[in-house]
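Supplementary Methods, section 5.1.

A reviewer requested that the exact input to the structure prediction be made available. We therefore reproduce it here, unchanged from the version used in the analyses.
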Amino acid sequence: MNPNDLAPLIGGMTLILSVAAVLIFRPLTKRLGDRIGHPPLPPPPPIDMSELTRVRLALEETSARLERIEQRLDFTEKLLSPPRERGTTSHPPSAAQQSPGHS
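The structure derived from this sequence is encoded cell-by-cell as follows.
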C-alpha cells in the first residue's frame, strides 16, 4: 500500500469516528448534565382524602356564592339601566305630575 493513500484513509476514518462519537455520546452527556444541574424533585406528599373533600366542598360553596352574586349584579344592572335599555318604552309624564309652570 502506498503511504500517500494511507493519510486520506486515516483522515476519513477519524472524521467518521468523531461524528459517530458525537452522535452517540451527546444525548448521554446532555442527560447527565441535566441530572447534575437539576436534581429530581422529591415526590409530592400523599393526598389526605378528608382534606381533599374539605377543599372540594369549599370550592363548590364559593362557586355557588359567586353565581348568586352574578345574578344579583345582573338584576341591579337591569334595575338601574335607563328604560330604553330595559326593553320598555318610556311614558311621557302625565299632566298631574307636571309642575304648574309647565302647562
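Residues 48-83 form one domain. These observations are discussed further in the main text.
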